[in-house]
Amino acid sequence: MRIVEKAFSGTRLQCASQKSYDSLLSALLDDIGRKPVDLSEVASRNPSWDAYSDSVKGFAGPSGFMLFGLIDHGEWTRKAGLNRKAMRVILGNPLIAITMLECDLQSGLFAPVELLLLEEPSDTSSVVYVRPSTLMVVEHNQPLHDAAIILDQKLDALVTKITSN
User: Fold this and answer.
1) For the segment 20-58, what is each residue's pLDDT rounded down to a tens digit?
2) What pLDDT, on the 0 to 100 scale, is given for residue 165?
3) What range defines the domain where residue 69 resides?
4) How do beta strands 124-130 and 113-120 pair?
5) What are phi and psi of 126, to 5 degrees?
6) Residue 89 CB contacts under 8 Å (≥ 6 apart), including other chains
7) Separation CA 62–CA 66 (nearest Å)
């Protein structure tokens, strides 16, 4: 067995919002959809890339992202005495991801992307996420960097949109 170790660092961002946690979550789901998309099922129904691509486009929200999954950390952490709402949201778009995967298949470790929505004091909220390019680009690869920066911008725009009043 051969293991290759590459150290890298990510950049974590936290964006505060005056919205309540429930309003923030609702704003996000209004954009990316409320039902997770099963990409395996979409792939099985669409044998070619063109057919798959056309089908996937129908699931993307205004931001270009779609919902893949929700993990309600707040639901189970309350049992341990942490009385705050916290939702991990897995979102992405394979048509965006392919622009990075074709440059370096290992970038798929960080696609799709994730957001963590947190309930904050005084009925406010925040969104925490890691800038995708800081996770995906661990060696010099200009095409991957360029594609990942576009993903960063799209994710930043979505977070700005949902956290604004």
Assistant:
1) 999 999 999 999 999 999 999 999 999 999 999 999 999
2) 80
3) 12-163
4) antiparallel
5) -155, 165
6) 28, 32, 67, 69, 70, 114, 115, 116, 117
7) 9
pLDDT per residue over 125-163, tens digit each? 999 999 999 999 999 999 999 999 999 999 999 999 999
The helix or strand, by DSSP H or E, that contains position 115, with its residue range, turns out to be strand 113-120
pTM above 0.85, yes or no: yes
Q: What CATH number is associated with residue 81?
A: 3.30.310.70
Task: Decide if 32 contacts 63 (C-beta within 8 A).
Answer: yes
The encoded tokens of residue 29 equal 């789901």
Q: Is residue 1 part of a domain?
A: no
- Burial class of residue 73 (count of CB atoms within 10 Å of its CB; 0-12, 13-18, 19+): middle
